[in-house]
From TrEMBL, chains A, B:
Protein's recorded name: alkaline phosphatase
Residues that span the membrane, as ranges: none
Signal sequence coordinates: 1-22
Organism of origin: Exophiala sideris
InterPro entries xrefs: Alkaline_phosphatase (IPR001952), Alkaline_phosphatase_core_sf (IPR017850)
Principal EC category: hydrolase
Family: Belongs to the alkaline phosphatase family.
Gene3D superfamilies reported in the protein's UniProt record: Alkaline Phosphatase, subunit A
Entry EC number(s): 3.1.3.1
PANTHER family according to UniProt: ALKALINE PHOSPHATASE (PTHR11596:SF72)
Length: 668, 668
């Protein structure tokens, strides 16, 4: 699936595997042997958290793993579970569920890039079972053992963490800056906060949080994660696989039978009927919001994701769910009836039928009642960017993103701050007793880094920070600040940094690409940021002369002569002139050889005064990719002391769930 | 100054301004007006810390700042100082020093790249004074006022921080990973620590420190710092200028009269006669070690730096200094008599004459007494890298870096761990009562990132972590762990990250550059790190089959088929094949058009199987450059609670100095 220009470009889902054309070399990432247990070895559980178990036995028919004579997988495999020091029991008996039906299927994979190039897939036959909707209540270590093929065994060591069921926070507000790194935070501070002789005169709101941590984002089966995989870790405490939402990925054909793990939203609702808010600047079926309620291996099942927001999981017994209090974002194409919506249904109507107030622009949003459940869908696809809404508003008149499906424009969109504060008002009104969990995502930090649109990405980050500041202020105004754990983090990074400045006047005056590079200034020649120096000769309100109220920290000039020399560590072919892209979000690379050929070159209409930079990514890539780096975690409020130092992304789930009192050491 | 191959390349000083060919646009960075006060506005001081004051009055003769008729600077300027709410006093009277002599000079600068290209410098005439060796004792706010030219005034608001003189730590060990970022730490963990299903089975030593912070490295007059500038901030609490060591840079011709600020080592020695150790894998005159005792605007004054280690500052009255207890590193060319050494003297003899034990290899180092002051210089230039010492030791037989100046090789070099533990043994032996301050620098994280030699850089980072682990263990063994504040940080970053993997076999099998890029795997195709999977068919001890003792965390295989897809955000022209450089440190770019022409292209003998990547840096750059990102601070021990959250690099000085009890609220 590839998109190219205008609206379609804006729809491009950054992390989606469309550009993953290089080597695949794992039969099933979670299963290096021929017997597979999911949840796999090293999985951790919250006491009382529901999950499914999938076991698979593989028989490779060809390729490097063939066992001569073993072409049909053993169907007499057994799974046992034992708590530390106790006698193993058959899984069905241990969990007191019926023995599941045997399932069989086949799948194929490529062992490496040579096999892929030669189109010689390896085939595998599978025998499998699934034990569904089980839980472990007693803290401690467990071992799951899969016996198969006459003495072969796969083991999974599981740990149920010893987390007290005591609730310490009434509310949790979790901000996710999608793709946000420390490097980006540093750059955003530079362009929006004044310094004098090197000393900042103000800092970001997140800078002032008392506790700082780093989370490691390594996923189950790859060291680079996507947002589905990492959101699953953050919300469930279980690391998973690229593209997977709230499940471990199995090898079966359907993407709706993979073994599920219960999410923080589901547990909070099950135990407390607490309020849940989901806010994102992405299309709302996108991975980071989706992973709170969806359970599918394929994040691309957008329609089903929307149905899960409203109805929960319906094809298997699972946690009851009656929809969040608040669901705000973009992605109208999954709501108005048509090929984008689940079963072609009108999901505006589906939500309205369940007593949701449905709003489609900021004006109505701000006037709507705080006592109703509310669905706010403000555009087709991802919502407009802060830079376009605030500095280049004419760009909102270009894309036909009206949320009502009318093919009109969506010029009255709220920002993350407006959506988040309204969400808090509703959650506070509806859940004064039982508290709330709000996830608010600045999605387009990631999306704009993907397309090398650094200015727009940093604008989104500053909007996130402005939202955090407004949130603290609002929580204080309603007397909830001390009872609310506020956590700001990311789900993964992009390899971004700032290395100096660029004299764009000099660059634009040079003809030769090598000469243009001479406009770059490093070390002492980086000088000072010019983004807060308004151009007094520019017209009032222009992008070179912006005026904000005191304490509002955004650049006063997005188009200074001396801009940031900034970039990514992984690029498609593109051109750089280091100037703001005034006519709308950037599209750095283009397939100039044919529409479906995945052969990307420099977009000849992008950054035309710049010099050409050849990429290092596969030529099938039209945008940047995620990176490895640990990402920061800023925390304040009850339980803040648990979030310092360096830990895994799953520890965020356990910290939040523990603070909300979500563990249960016996069947409720 | 440019170097090209072999030893000379190894000598290249990363951050030096040789490659800063782009715009200069500040007359004097700390002085945007025509009257200059150093320390400038916003400077912070430790109570009782000595410093010099420089005031300058500028009269531009041409360029954009000319004032018609004002061609000679006002020589009747006055400087006053006032504590908050008190009457200003003339500076000489306030500090009870003699009124300084008036000085005058001229200097020139370029206003921008166009002026530089046209060779049209702007000229400035200067009148100046310096008030030397003064201090402020009472915490609070002060204002320095420079009145000049009939009513013009420049103000500097100074703050003496309210820091109690109580000593809380007996010892401080400060580790500096030069250029080390969170991203690099994440990558080093990936290649040296096992994970199972995404969960690390061990972590880095620094990961386990209880308190994490981020420091902002923005310098006085540019947002990108070099290591001199940042070391000055870390050791003195004063932000400075690129290339400046322990001074604010003024505009005078000599680099030995700039206004000084007292360093943590100097204060600790002055107040407690405490032990001081200085350890680095760089040539020891390099910026990070140098800034503990040197006071010069020009970090390139290597000989004078060495003299300052031994004799302190001799051209002005300054803190008495009799040399550190330990000085270990490279840079023999500043010690044996010759053009590299200060005044051509033999500094081995100079140190020996002051009762230093002088050692030149690891064998002798390990046997030498712990009761003597010790100078250990183990190679010409920067010391050998961990990867070469441990995996490719034959590379040590190539460079003629014998520390005795014999033009032999230096094959018996200690690593950072050996130097650091020996330093601790000496410091502990000599300073059981008064405690010690040790700075230990992993210098070549930075140096190898500069040359895009990611493997060597990560090897250095892992050696740093191994050194930290050994340090904690040693401190515990001598009963000093609980009395020692251990702090691990960096001085700046490089824009580095890991984005996936590379199938080097596939890459090497492709002929076309665009096809080679198809070997890159991202997201799920990054798979798992192969650096801990030894190649069982490789010879024992080869770089594909390395065996370490349990708990020693380095890669088992530096040359796996699937390597890291990694890179920097700022590059010269170069080629990438993503394989380890087996024959010695990398040299990515080369001047193929002439020796002094600063016109760099891809080095045709580097990474020859790879594809070409054109850089974004000026073509005069042969290596990468520093970046903006906040860098991490890991702390454990007394006062650890002061180092959480986000703060400036100068706050590290104030935290360390406060913990060591270095403030004095009255003249001693």
């Amino acid at each position: 699936m590839r998109f190219h220009l205008g609206l379609k470009a804006a729809l491009a889902v950054g992390a989606f595997c469309a550009q993953c054309t290089a080597q695949t070399y794992q039969r099933l990432g979670s299963c290096p042997t021929l017997g597979c247990i999911l949840p796999p070895d090293q999985a951790d559980f919250l006491p009382g958290q529901y999950f499914d178990i999938r076991v698979e036995v593989h028989a490779p028919l060809n390729g490097s793993e063939v066992i001569p004579g073993y072409t049909n997988p053993d169907t007499n495999f057994t799974l046992t579970i034992a708590r530390d020091g106790q006698t193993p029991k058959a899984a069905a008996s241990f969990f007191n569920v019926s023995e599941p039906t045997l399932e069989t299927w086949n799948f194929t994979w490529y062992e490496d890039l040579f096999a892929k190039a030669a189109n010689t897939p390896s085939q595998v036959r599978v025998a499998a079972k699934a034990y569904r909707h089980v839980a472990l209540y007693q803290p401690g270590n467990y071992i799951a053992t899969l016996n198969y093929r006459n003495g072969s065994a796969t083991y999974a060591n599981w740990t149920v963490r010893d987390i007290a069921p005591t609730r310490k926070a009434k509310n949790v507000v979790m901000f996710i800056g999608d793709g946000m790194t420390t490097n980006m935070i540093t750059a955003a501070r530079l362009i929006a906060h004044h310094q004098i002789n090197g000393k900042y005169q103000s800092k970001l709101a997140m800078d002032s949080f008392p506790v700082l941590g780093h989370q490691m984002t390594h996923s189950l089966d790859s060291y680079i994660t996507d947002s589905a995989n990492s959101a699953t870790a953050l919300y469930t405490g279980h690391k998973s696989t690229v593209n997977a939402l709230g499940v471990y990925a199995d090898s079966s054909k359907t993407s709706f039978d993979d073994p599920k793990v219960e999410t923080i939203a589901e547990i909070f609702y099950r135990l407390y009927k607490g309020g849940v808010g989901i806010v994102s600047t992405a299309f709302i079926a996108d991975a980071t919001p989706a992973a709170l309620t969806a359970h599918t291996r394929d994040r691309g099942q957008y329609g089903a994701v929307i149905d899960s927001f409203l109805n929960g999981i319906t094809n298997y017994t699972w946690t009851n769910w009656s929809g969040p209090d608040v669901l705000f974002g973009g992605g109208a194409e999954q709501f108005y009836p048509g090929k984008g919506s689940f079963q072609g249904k009108d999901y505006y109507a589906e939500f309205a039928n369940k007593n949701y107030t449905v709003v489609q622009n900021n004006t109505i949003l701000q006037k709507s009642s705080n006592s109703s459940k509310t669905l706010g869908i403000f555009s087709v696809s991802n919502m407009a960017k802060w830079l376009d809404r605030n500095v280049y508003p004419d760009n909102l008149k270009i894309a036909k993103t009206a949320p009502d499906g009318s093919n009109g424009t969506a010029t009255d969109q709220p920002g993350l701050k407006e959506m988040t504060i309204k969400a808090l008002e509703i959650l506070h009104t509806r859940h004064q007793q039982d508290g709330f969990f709000l996830m608010s995502e600045a999605a387009s930090i990631d999306k704009q880094m993907h397309t090398l649109d650094y200015d727009r990405a940093l604008g989104e980050l500053l909007e996130l920070d402005d939202t955090i500041k407004a949130t603290l202020s609002y929580l204080e105004s309603i007397g909830e600040l001390n009872d609310t754990l506020v956590l700001v983090t990311a789900d993964h990074g992009h390899g971004f940094d700032v290395m100096g400045n660029v004299d764009t006047k000099f660059l634009n005056a040079q003809k030769d690409d090598r000469d243009k590079r001479g406009a770059v200034g490093t070390y002492q020649n980086s000088g000072l940021s010019q983004y807060l120096v308004a151009n007094r000769s520019a017209p009032v309100g222009s992008d070179q002369n912006l005026i904000y109220n005191a304490g509002v920290n955004f650049p006063s000039n997005w188009d200074p002569r001396y801009t940031l020399y900034q970039g990514l560590t992984a690029n498609p072919d593109h051109r750089e002139n280091y100037q703001v892209h005034k006519t709308g979000p950037r599209l750095p690379a283009l397939n100039i050889t044919g529409f479906d050929n995945d052969d990307y070159y420099v977009n000849y209409v992008d950054a035309v005064t710049g010099f050409i930079v050849n990429g290092t990514l596969p030529v099938s890539a039209d945008q940047g990719v995620h990176s490895l780096t640990d990402v920061p975690v800023f925390t304040r409020g009850p339980c803040q002391e648990q979030f310092g130092g360096v830990y895994g992304n799953i520890d965020i789930f356990f910290g939040l769930a523990g603070c909300l009192g979500l563990s249960r050491t016996s069947h409720p």
